[in-house]
Each structure stands twice: as C-alpha cells, then as structure tokens.
Design goal:
Amidase; Amidase signature (AS) enzymes; eleven-stranded mixed β-sheet; Indoleacetamide hydrolase; Amidase_dom; alpha/beta; hydrolase activity
C-alpha cells in the first residue's frame, strides 16, 4: 500500500484526499515509510513523521476547497517556513526558525497545501552538486554514489524517490532544472518575478526565483497556478502547430554520448509527432552572457544576503555567517569577494544596463525571425557524476570545471529571466533532461507545450 501511494502525483493526491479514496493518515504514513526507507539519500534536512498527519489535516481544514487541499510539499531549506528551520544549508542558520513564511509558502497555505519537510541543498545555494560539508551530501536515487545536482538537490531527490509528490526549489542559474535532469523529474523555472520572492535566503535578486519540481508537467502546472495566481487549466498544445528552435551552437557542443543519444532520440520523436524543428543560433549573445552571469551574482549576493539576515535573522551577523560556511567551494566563492577582489560596481552596472538588455534583444529577435514557440536543448551536457567532484568532472576524456559545465545550458535563460522547463528523457541508464525555454511572461503557454511533449516522449 505504501509503495503504491508513494507513486501518486500531486494532482492525484489532491483528488484522492478530496474524494476520501485515500485518508490523510494513510498517505502520511506511506510518506513516512518512504522517508525512512530512503534515509540514506540525505534528501531531507528537517522532517517530523509524527507531525505530518496533523499538518496535512490542518492545511486542508484551513482551505478545504483549495487547489492543494491536504497536499504535503517538500521545500528547499532556503525558503522561509515557520514550522521548520530555514538554514540555507549553512552552519550559522541551522537552528534559524523564521518569524514569517516566505511569500510562496503563504500562497501554498492559502491553497490548502502543507509544508511536509525541508530539503537538503548545496550550502547557501552556491553550487551545483548538493555536496554540503555542513549537512552532508545529498545522494542521487538512481545511484547513491552520484550527485543529485544542485543546488535544489534534496527537493529533486525526495521527489524522484517518491518521498514527496512535489515541492519547491530555487533557481538562480539552473538550480531547479539541473537536479531535475540528473534525478529524472520535471523542474520548472518561471519567468523571473512571476512568484513572490520575499523570505528566501538570496543569492541575486535579479536572477533568483522559486521553482516547482514534480514527476509530471501536470503537477508542475498545478503548483505554478497556485504560486502565480493563475488557476486556469493547462491544455496540451497541438504539436503539429509547434515550431521549436534547435540551437546547435554551444547548447549541443561537447555532450556526453548518453546525453546526446537521449536528446537526439527525443527530437526525432517530437518531429514524428508533428513538431517543426528549425536550427537557430545565438552566437552574438555569449559575450554578453559572460559579462552578466557571475558579475551580477557576486555583486548582489554581498548585499542581498546581509539584507536577508537583517530582516529575518538579526541575531546572525554576516561575518558569523561567513565563518560558519563549511563547504570549501562556497567558502572560496565568498572569499573571492573580500577586499580588492570584490566585484566593481561599474562592472555590475554594465551587466545590468548594457549586457542584459542586449541579451534580451538578441533572444527575442531569434524567436521572431524564426517564428519559434520555444528552443529545445539538453538541460545539462552530462549526467550525474560521483559525489566529491566539486571542482572538476570528466567529460569526454577531459577534466572540466564542474559548476560552469553543469549550468552551461541553463544559465542564459536565468540571465534574461525567461521560463524554462526540464523534462526527463526516457532512458535505461542515468537520467537525462531535455529543456524547453520560452518567452518571458508566457509561462502557461510553455507548460502547455511541455505537457504535449511529455506525452509524445512517453509513447
């Protein structure tokens, strides 16, 4: 019974609880059993099996007709919630219980959803492996010796393992989509600003967003509707009316053979289903992307993170936070911004005032000139690699930098603020993701396209 309940998606759980087919007590017990069975994944940072039934019942009672009535979600541990600590995966905040919920949590509660657990993550969301020296490494459910991706690795692992049906991560440069790809689930980055951004341990206010993860597009669409206040149903797009741009340059270069095989197979499936595939190029965009990506992150984090502490954890100074960082890669990143190494304001202003507008212009021009609905590409150039390879990983016989390699394909969408969704490719080996990126503000249209693509790829 517990195994069967663990396979239910979010939409199915809401319907089953609403109809009385499944009791809250039975469902909570099933999730608790799965959490215990998969404890070795270290996917959950905070979880209380005894509290779960009561939390679900209270959530449903508070909004009995809500879209999420009774649904328990797992939230990345950088999203404020008053019922569990919000640690950001770092030492100084391990016991930090916020006085208020994040905006996205308020939306979840208003729809009758419950915070079922907080998920492990890369320390301060400043990495892509979820190998956290403070709270321990999160492990991939497909192979526990491998990374789940990051920084929302715990959320993705918990959903892939069936511990929770859906949840939230955050995405600055790919942190919802990368772990979705590596764990074999669906990960969505909405248009920047689509969801409330308050009450989240920040990196960059210009790039950060919460994002849903689940095992189906329908479940992601359910959460997106709640978080964005758009409750209309998402009907799958007729694929014979869809034109997708295939950006071979950069996005398809130097791919792991398993990724290349899986993604090319799905492009053929989509073409057979009626999708028109058009090769497109973004060559002029890459110098602007490089001039924007890390300069904005480094400049803003040194201001946004102290501001978060001042508002939500005034007992923790920025110096104390920095002293409590345990992961060498994260400590090194913050150390690089001390003293003369700090990102100059002039470089930041050029990124915001020159490079981002130009990226958005080029991106929109490619869409308009080619008449495309979205672009499609491998979410990551390679599948999961062994835990501990935080500096470099092997790709086609060469050692390459871990962080920039994994976010190579997801970074652009983050920088220009457009919606992107990673779907799992049907594979027999390690999970591989295929991503669709659309136009800013057209999130529901992208979800409709993704829903149709998901159906075609599952045949």
């Amino acid at each position: 019974m517990a195994q069967d309940l663990g396979t239910l998606g979010a939409v199915e759980v809401v319907a089953a609880i609403g109809s009385g087919t499944v009791s809250i007590t039975d469902y909570a017990e099933a999730l608790a059993e799965r959490a215990a069975a998969h404890e070795g994944l270290n996917a959950l940072q905070s979880f209380d099996a005894d509290r779960l039934p009561g939390a679900m019942q209270a959530a449903r009672d508070a909004a009995p007709g809500g879209a999420l009535a009774g649904l328990p979600l797992v939230l990345k541990d950088n999203i404020n919630s008053t019922d569990f600590p919000t640690s950001g995966g770092t030492g100084a905040l391990l016991k930090h219980v916020p006085a208020t919920d994040a905006g996205v949590v308020r939306a979840i509660r208003a729809a009758g959803g419950a915070v079922g657990a907080k998920a492990g993550m890369h320390e301060l969301a400043f990495g892509i492996t979820s190998n956290n020296a403070v709270s321990g490494a999160v492990r991939n459910p497909t192979d526990p010796t491998l990374i789940p991706g990051g920084s929302s690795g715990g959320t993705a692992a918990a959903i892939a393992a069936g511990i929770f049906p859906a949840g939230l991560g955050t995405d600055t440069g790919g942190s919802c989509r990368v772990p979705a790809a590596l764990c074999g689930v669906v990960g969505f980055r909405p248009t920047t600003g689509r969801y409330a951004g308050d009450g989240i341990v920040p990196i960059s206010h210009s790039r950060d967003t919460a994002g849903p993860l689940a095992r189906s597009v329908d479940d992601v669409a359910l959460l997106d509707g709640v978080l964005a206040g758009e409750g209309t149903a998402v009907e799958p797009r007729n694929l014979s009316t869809v034109t997708l741009g295939v950006p071979r340059g950069m996005f398809f270069e130097n791919l792991d053979p398993a990724v290349e095989t899986a993604v090319e197979a799905q492009l053929s499936v989509l073409a057979a289903a009626g999708v028109k595939l058009v090769e497109v190029g973004f060559d002029p965009i890459w110098p602007h992307n490089e001039a924007f990506s890390f300069p904005v992150v480094f400049y803003e984090v040194m201001r946004d993170l102290p501001a978060y502490l001042s508002e939500h954890a005034p007992e923790v100074s920025f110096d104390r936070l920095l002293a409590g960082i345990g992961s060498p890669d994260v400590a090194g990143a913050f150390a690089s911004q001390q003293g003369d190494g700090a990102m100059p304001e002039a470089v930041y202003r050029a990124a915001m005032d020159i490079h981002r507008p130009e990226m958005r212009r080029i991106y929109g021009q490619v869409f308009e000139e080619n008449g495309i609905d979205a672009i499609v590409f491998p979410t990551t150039p390679l599948p999961a690699r062994p835990i501990g390879q935080d500096e470099t990983v092997e790709l086609n016989g060469q050692r390459v930098p871990t962080f920039p390699t994994y976010i190579r394909n997801t970074d652009l969408g983050s920088n220009i603020g457009v919606p992107g969704i990673s779907l799992p490719c049907p594979v027999t080996g390690l999970p591989v993701g295929i991503e669709f990126d659309g136009i800013a503000g057209q999130d529901r249209a992208l979800l409709a396209l993704a829903r149709a693509a998901e159906t075609a790829m599952a045949r």
